[in-house]
Design a protein that fits this description.
The protein is mostly helical and 144 residues long. The protein has a single domain, classed as Up-down Bundle (Four Helix Bundle (Hemerythrin (Met), subunit A)). The protein has six helices and no strands. Helix 5 packs antiparallel against helix 6. It is globular.
Length: 144
């Protein structure tokens, strides 16, 4: 019985997220990017020594990046070009390039996840993944 309640709750939460993504993609993007930012902060702190390297956290950072890439695919419909967003019109003007950069970010994060074993390999992975992340932000995000 409890298992059914938990399953039903999870399904309802996923449904609510899907509805939010369709009805308010800007808010859904912001939520994803907040999580991306939180994970980036963890990575930066491990790399700079502000917090100890933790393999599980490092892998979570990369898994989150990969998930953000995947979830973002549907969050840039035409009707979300304007509003309270940092997304530049260039996204919709160069949609194929934007989609390719977003996919590359996810691919890099997924590939790096299996290669990370220690702080040095994490630093290397984050350098490559960071370039992909920055590639989108430099071209397709307003400077804030």
């Amino acid at each position: 019985m409890i298992r059914h309640i938990v399953l039903a709750s999870a399904i309802a939460a996923l449904g609510a997220t899907a509805v939010l993504a369709q009805s308010d993609p800007i808010s859904a993007r912001k939520e994803l990017m907040k999580e991306n930012g939180a994970q980036s902060r963890i990575a930066r702190e491990m790399i700079t020594g502000k917090q100890s390297f933790d393999l599980a956290k490092a892998k979570k950072v990369l898994a989150t990046f990969a998930a953000v890439s995947e979830k973002s695919k549907t969050l840039y419909p035409d009707h979300s070009k304007s509003g309270d967003t940092a997304a530049l019109p260039a996204i919709w003007e160069n949609k194929a390039d934007f989609d390719a950069k977003l996919a590359e970010f996810g691919t890099s994060a997924k590939a790096a996840e299996s290669k990370v074993t220690d702080l040095d390999s994490f630093k290397d992975a984050m350098s490559d993944v960071g370039k992909d992340c920055g590639g989108c932000h430099r071209t397709y995000r307003k400077k804030t």
